[in-house]
Specification:
Blueprint lengths: L13 H10 L8 H6 L9 H8 L11 H6 L5 H12 L1 H6 L8 H11 L6 H17 L9 H13 L22 E4 L2 E4 L10 H14 L2
Antiparallel strand pairs: 1-2
Length: 217
């Protein structure tokens, strides 16, 4: 995702705006009229629309995305906002993994490098102020994980050995005293299927089960 370049002229209404969003019903389309309905009537307040697009709350048409609806859950809103900031300012977090703790001057200097001189000093200052103001309102203790990160965490657990392996029944026997056709090793589960030969001689089957008991853990 490209670095977010959206900014607010002044962040004084940012906290009130986010609180209003959490208590209002999500609109079909996020427009300046919706902002007016929430009593944000200043021309500067219209910049919230561009900021919400940059944060992935609404799409280019102004339609709320899943992140918007997740944000409405007030038990998660701070973490949802933190994750949105991490994604929108990914380049900044690559430079400093704790970018949310930087002050405005530090952020401005990093943004100057990242934007390669394409933004004026005034715009860089506004971008930095917007980033710092957003970061102060987010919950950084435990940001919401994206589906991709959750999957990666699961794979990491398997790579590290996963949960303790279940022990097979004593003597390798399963239900009914017969050797089990399922066992685990290192957190990996195996299903073993045995195709028995057609025979009326019970000794054939006895030999097969005896061999299984000897060789399976």
């Amino acid at each position: 995702m490209p670095l977010a370049t959206a900014y607010l002229v002044t962040p004084k209404n940012l906290e009130a705006f986010l609180n209003a969003i959490k208590t209002a019903q999500a609109p079909e389309r996020f427009t300046s009229k919706f902002l007016t309905d929430l009593d944000f009537t200043s021309s500067n307040d219209r910049l919230f629309i561009g900021l919400f697009k940059a944060l992935g709350f609404i799409n280019e048409s102004g339609e709320p995305m899943q992140r918007y609806f997740d944000f409405l859950d007030q038990t998660r809103s701070g973490r949802v906002l933190a994750q949105a900031i991490r994604e929108a300012y990914d380049d900044l977090f690559r430079v400093n993994k704790d970018a949310q703790n930087m002050d405005e001057n530090e952020v401005k200097n990093k943004l100057k490098t990242l934007t390669r001189g394409e933004k004026s000093d005034n715009v860089l200052g506004l971008m930095a102020k917007t980033f710092v103001s957003l970061s102060q309102l987010a919950d950084w203790d435990k940001p919401d994980a994206t589906p991709g990160e959750a999957s990666a965490a699961g794979l990491g657990a398997v790579a590290a050995g996963g949960p303790p392996a279940a022990k097979p029944a004593a003597g390798g026997a399963g239900a009914g005293g017969k050797p089990s056709d399922r066992y685990t090793a290192g957190g990996v589960h195996y299903n073993i299927q045995i195709h028995l030969p057609a025979s009326r001689d019970s000794a054939v089957y006895d030999a097969i089960f005896k061999s299984l008991k000897e060789h399976l853990p």
